[in-house]
Amino acid sequence: MHLLEGEGVSRNFGGLLAVSEVDFYVDEGEILGLIGPNGAGKTTLFNLISAALKPSAGRIRYKGVDITGLPPFRICRLGVARTFQTVKVFGDSTVLKNVMVGSLFGTGKKRVKTAEAERNAEQALELVGMFDLRDTLAGDLTLAQQKRLELARALATGPELLLLDELMAGLTPTEVSEAMNDVAEIRKRGITIVMIEHVMQAMMSISDRIIVLDHGRKIAEGTPAEVAANPRVIEVYLGEECDAGD
Predict the structure, then answer these.
(1) Are residues 170 and 236 in the same domain?
(2) What per-residue confidence (pLDDT) applies to 237?
(3) Are 161 and 81 in contact, with CB atoms under 8 Å apart?
(4) Which of 94, 100, 157, 170 has the lowest CB atom count within 10 Å?
(5) Are residues 64 and 17 in the same domain?
(6) Where are the alpha helices (DSSP H) in the chain?
(7) Mean pLDDT per 10-residue run, the chain (246 residues)?
(8) Are 123 and 229 in the same domain?
(9) Which domain holds residue 97?
(10) Do the domain assignments include residue 226?
(11) How many domains does the chain have?
(12) Who contacts 61 (Cβ-Cβ below 8 Å, separation ≥6)?
């Protein structure tokens, strides 16, 4: 049984079909990459999995249970957490309090005491190398630090499946390398990961398997080597990346 799977997942916005009949699966312990040109439907698919949006058609199952249409907080408490393409931090609160929100809101337990939430938050901050910044206001952090903060907040929910939406966007090469190390360490902790990324070097080196979307449809799937050699992928995406000098 796959940890997460979707069958015929679609979502339209009026006359625009953002995601069209996409079948996908993620196995436990896997790092699955999701790539494609801008507007390919990648973030929309994340929104459908995390229940920020409801599918127009198709079903999504987690651990064999149909989760289609469940509210977002239920999805989170089942063990599915995510980060966002645009960071969403509480700028006037400390780093620690930002991460405590994840523990208080997202864990599967009915009630988490403040002391336990603080311990969970500190452990998440330690994992992403931000423990020493726990008393800093989130609004004073750099972009790279805010992305790590959002990652820590997602980890504090206690996920089994983590959806990372462009964690490395806007980062320097050194920061990208550090983010890749974070992802590898998170996987070692037994957390399954699905990543959207435009940093191809990172995606190809860290993913076990890659799905490619174009105009909402899945056009390729396979190992990084298989995807990189796929003529259709080269035509619609990788060729574009090369032309841009990436």
Answers:
(1) yes
(2) 80
(3) yes
(4) 170
(5) yes
(6) 42-49, 72-78, 95-106, 114-127, 143-155, 173-188, 200-206, 224-228, 231-233, 239-243
(7) 96 93 97 94 96 96 95 92 92 97 74 87 95 97 94 95 94 92 94 94 93 96 95 80 42
(8) no
(9) 80-158
(10) yes
(11) 2
(12) 2, 4, 5, 6, 7, 67
